[in-house]
C-alpha cells in the first residue's frame, strides 16, 4: 500500500509540475488579422499605428507579450489623460484577449492531450495516494504528531504551498493574461459544456475550485468514514459545488439564460444589486431572469432566518457554501492552525461585523444610484469610493488571496471567521434565534483537547466541554468535527426547543462551583 501511495504522489507531483510549466511553453505572435478581429472597431483607428510595431513579431513567453500589449495601450492613455481627452481613454483590457488569440505552440496543438495528462494524471495520482488510507489508517483524527509535519504546521512545505496559492490568486485576479495557457488548457471542457462559449479566467477558476473540492472531498469521505454526519455533509458540498455552482450556470448560458449561481446570495454575492446584474436578470433573462432575481432576494430575506432557526448556520456554511466546501475539503489538513486565543476572537468579532456593515452601506448606495439614476450619494462617488474598494479589498484580496492562500498559514476558515459578511449575518441569527446548539457532557470530558485543536473556527471547545456548557457561539459553522474527534462522545450536535439553549452558566469562585440562577 505504501508503494501505491508513493507512486500516486509522484504522478500527482508530475502533473502539478507540468501544469505550472505550461506558463512558459508557448510563443506569441500578433497579426493584423487577429488585431482587427479582437479589438473594438471604435478603438482600431487609434490603436493601429502603435500596434503595427508589434505585428508579426514573435515573443518567447506570455509575460513579455502581455506587458507589451499593456504598455502600448497605457502609453496612449497617459497621453490622453495629460491632454484631458477623456473620451480617448481606452478602458478595455486587451492584454488577455490578444494574448489568447496570439498563442502558438503545444498548448494550442495538443490542448486535449495536455488536459488529460494534467487533470487525469493528477486525479489518478491523488486517488492512489488517498485510497490506501482505507486499509492502513483508522478513520477520524488521532493525535498523530500532526504539529511536527512540514505541511500541516507551517513548515517549509506549507509555506511553499501557501506561496503558490497566493501567487495563483494574484495572477488570476489581477494579471489574467499571464495565465492564458491555463485558460486555453480548459477550453475542451468549456466547449463540451457550451460549444459556443470560450474559456476565461473565471471558468478556469471554477473548474480548479470544483476539481479540488471533488478530489479532496473523496479524501474527507475516507477520513471520516466512521461518521454518517460527516459523510453526508461532505457529499452535500461536493454536489452543490459541482452541480449547482459549476455546471448549472454554464448550462443556463448555453440555453441563452443569465449566468446564475442559485446557492449564492447577498451579501456574499456582493454584486447582486449592481445595476448591470439587475438589468441582466430582469431584461435579458425574461421571466427566468426575474425568477432568479426574486429567488436571490427571498433566499437571504426569508431563507436565512428560517433555515438558521431550524438548523443553525451549518445548513449553509457547512453543507452548501462553496467557500465552506473548499475549506472543509481542500482545507481540512490545515484546520488545526486556526488561532484559538481570546485576542483572535475579539479581532474576529470586530472584523467580520465591520465587513458586514461595509457591505450594507455599499449595497444601499449602489441601490440608491440604480433607483435614482445618479452616480453619487451625499457628494460621494459610489463606484470609486465604495463599490470598487469593496470589490478589491473584500471580494478579491480578503476572500481570495488571503481567504484561500493562507490555508497553510492561518487555517482553513480565515475568510469565514474574519471576513465573510454572510457568515456574520447567519451567525447573528444563530446566536439569538435558533434551535441549534452543541451540547456537552462535562462529566465525561478527559481534557484531551482534540475538539479545540481541530476546531476550524478558532473556538476553544474544551473550555465549554469542561464546564458542561452548550456551545452557541455565532461563529460556529456546525461542521461537527469536534464531535467526530471526541473519544468519549462528550459533544453532540442537537436541534431542540429554544428554552434552555443557553443553559445555566457555571460560576467558579471562592465559595466553590455553582450554577447561576
Automatic annotation (TrEMBL):
<dbReference type="InterPro" id="IPR017900">
    <property type="entry name" value="4Fe4S_Fe_S_CS"/>
</dbReference>
<dbReference type="GO" id="GO:0051539">
    <property type="term" value="F:4 iron, 4 sulfur cluster binding"/>
</dbReference>
<keyword id="KW-0249">Electron transport</keyword>
<keyword id="KW-0479">Metal-binding</keyword>
<feature type="transmembrane region" description="Helical">
    <location>
        <begin position="390"/>
        <end position="409"/>
    </location>
</feature>
<feature type="domain" description="4Fe-4S ferredoxin-type">
    <location>
        <begin position="467"/>
        <end position="496"/>
    </location>
</feature>
<keyword id="KW-0812">Transmembrane</keyword>
<keyword id="KW-0813">Transport</keyword>
<dbReference type="Pfam" id="PF12801">
    <property type="entry name" value="Fer4_5"/>
</dbReference>
<feature type="transmembrane region" description="Helical">
    <location>
        <begin position="350"/>
        <end position="370"/>
    </location>
</feature>
<feature type="transmembrane region" description="Helical">
    <location>
        <begin position="7"/>
        <end position="25"/>
    </location>
</feature>
<dbReference type="InterPro" id="IPR051684">
    <property type="entry name" value="Electron_Trans/Redox"/>
</dbReference>
<dbReference type="InterPro" id="IPR017896">
    <property type="entry name" value="4Fe4S_Fe-S-bd"/>
</dbReference>
<feature type="transmembrane region" description="Helical">
    <location>
        <begin position="290"/>
        <end position="311"/>
    </location>
</feature>
<keyword id="KW-0408">Iron</keyword>
<feature type="transmembrane region" description="Helical">
    <location>
        <begin position="155"/>
        <end position="175"/>
    </location>
</feature>
<keyword id="KW-0411">Iron-sulfur</keyword>
<keyword id="KW-0004">4Fe-4S</keyword>
<dbReference type="GO" id="GO:0005886">
    <property type="term" value="C:plasma membrane"/>
</dbReference>
<feature type="transmembrane region" description="Helical">
    <location>
        <begin position="202"/>
        <end position="222"/>
    </location>
</feature>
<feature type="transmembrane region" description="Helical">
    <location>
        <begin position="112"/>
        <end position="134"/>
    </location>
</feature>
<feature type="domain" description="4Fe-4S ferredoxin-type">
    <location>
        <begin position="436"/>
        <end position="464"/>
    </location>
</feature>
<protein>
    <submittedName>
        <fullName>4Fe-4S binding protein</fullName>
    </submittedName>
</protein>
<dbReference type="GO" id="GO:0046872">
    <property type="term" value="F:metal ion binding"/>
</dbReference>
<dbReference type="Pfam" id="PF13187">
    <property type="entry name" value="Fer4_9"/>
</dbReference>
<keyword id="KW-0472">Membrane</keyword>
<keyword id="KW-1133">Transmembrane helix</keyword>
<feature type="transmembrane region" description="Helical">
    <location>
        <begin position="234"/>
        <end position="255"/>
    </location>
</feature>
